[in-house]
Specification:
By secondary structure, the chain is of the alpha+beta class. It has a single domain, classed as Jelly Rolls (Sandwich), CATH 2.60.120.10. The chain has 4 helices and 8 strands, in the order H-H-E-E-E-E-E-E-E-E-H-H. Strands 1-8-3-6 form a 4-stranded antiparallel β-sheet. The radius of gyration is 18 Å and the shape is globular.
């Protein structure tokens, strides 16, 4: 992929929609194109992973291992979304397994390089953290909805047992 094509891929992503050209250029210096085939595992729950992804095409299923229930799908991440932001926070382990449901095209950043760039450029750092916060908020809402479903199932099962 030529540099101009990579720049265009990066510029079209939601994550960069409010960035100036100079900030996009800075991100482009540390980003790389990432492709993965359907069925591949991007990372495993509980492992350390160094990359952060901006999904451009395809979908990724996040799943967690639940004792007695196996692997449970918790969320699907698609084009325009951020994936794998745990490494941005003190080298945290991944909280889920990520499985490519389709062929994936993404922009990938090494988390350490991204954090260094954000520290060197406070404007970029502010905008990146704002986007990461939005991604966390979206995941929190999804978790709340799943809890509501879980409690609804539990209540229904309890009432039918009476």
């Amino acid at each position: 992929m030529e540099s101009s094509e990579f720049q265009e891929l990066l510029a079209e992503h939601f994550f960069t929609d409010d960035l100036s050209q100079s900030l996009l250029d800075a991100l482009a210096t540390i980003g790389r194109k990432f492709e993965m085939t359907a069925g591949s595992i991007l990372f495993e729950e509980g492992t350390r992973h160094r990359d952060v992804y901006l999904i451009c095409q395809g979908t990724v299923r996040l799943e967690m291992s639940v004792p007695g229930r196996g692997d449970i799908s918790i969320l699907t991440i698609g084009a325009g979304e951020l994936l794998g932001f745990s490494p941005l926070f003190d080298d945290q382990v991944m909280t889920a397994r990520a499985v490519a449901l389709d062929d994936i095209l993404a922009v990938c950043f090494d988390a350490n390089e991204l954090m260094q760039l954000c520290e060197q450029n406070p404007e970029l750092g502010y905008r990146v953290m704002k986007k990461v916060t939005r991604a966390y908020a979206k995941r929190l809402v999804a978790t709340r909805l799943q809890l509501l479903d879980l409690f609804a199932e539990s209540t229904t099962q309890h009432e039918s047992a009476e």
